[in-house]
Amino acid sequence: MYKLRLFKDKFMSKLMLVLTLASVSVLFVIGIGLYYHSIPILHKLSLSDLLTTSVWKPLKGLFGFYPFIMGTLWVTGISIIIALPLCLLTALYINEYAPARIRKILTPFVNLLSGIPPVIFGVWGVLFIIPLIQDHIAPHFVAFSTGYSVLAGGIVLAVMIFPLIVSIITEVLRTIPQDLRDASLSLGATGWETTRKVVLKKALPGIIAAVVLAISRAFGETIAVLMVCGNNAVVPHSVFDPGYPLPALIANNYGEMLSIPMYDSALMFAALLLFVIILLFNIISRVILARLERKLAS
Predict the structure, then answer these.
(1) Separation CA 159–CA 99 (nearest Å)
(2) Which domain holds residue 149?
(3) Distance of CA 220 to CAs 73, 95, 198, 200, 245, Å?
(4) What is the pLDDT of residues 168-208, one digit of tens each?
(5) Inter-residue contact 35 to 20 (CB < 8 Å)
(6) Rounded CA gap, 251 and 118, in Å?
(7) I need a surface site. Which of 71, 188, 275, 295 has the fewest CB within 10 A?
(8) Residue 23, domain member (yes or no)
(9) Total of domains in the chain
(10) What is the pTM of this model?
(11) For position 90, which CATH number holds?
């Protein structure tokens, strides 16, 4: 009986190892598959031409991805700039200041946002954000704007990633021992000083991890951003210019790829490019996070 228990224990350990390796290997399978389908365009055009040129004319065999890369970075950057302060203050209020009764009401409403389909956010952006930018915001800064811009995409995307960041930061704040707060208050610090100098400092690695996850999701959002960005293959020079993120490029043109030479490979390269950007961003963020954790621990 004892040997049977040991066998079961070893078997489950090996099974979990196999399943874990299978899950991790999906990442490599995706990368290899995208690279394999991108080989034709990489043989035809150099990597520098693909990444640094701005001309997108598939019928002439010209595939410059620079406008799409910049559109992706503009939209994602704007969304994080808008969402991070709101999410941080919301999480702090829910965890540190809100009474229990209000906390029980606010938390489900925040989580409810994560269950709304992206197309609903896109429709909301078209009906409300686009007219707001076109009629009330853009006239104060530029001569004319249709409202379909990277700013609109950033606002819609900020609302979409809002519940994710708030949920993670709230959970991080809950892991901070109450003794640290009590010790700070007993030394004469105010509630805000305790929050700023003790709670936020202790929670900083978790906050960075939340932002990393949110940015990774923001890079890949498609439908809602596609509906409000304008989808014009030019490099944005201001927040009121239209943009064309990589996910929108893939979603908009995938059905046409069979009729145009090299289009299939170009779109696969766009997917590979998005995959690599997210992967590199996560690796760099993990390195920074590890160094920050070591610094705080010391």
Answers:
(1) 25
(2) 72-263
(3) 11, 30, 34, 29, 9
(4) 888 888 888 888 888 888 888 888 888 888 888 888 888 88
(5) no
(6) 14
(7) 188
(8) no
(9) 1
(10) 0.87
(11) 1.10.3720.10
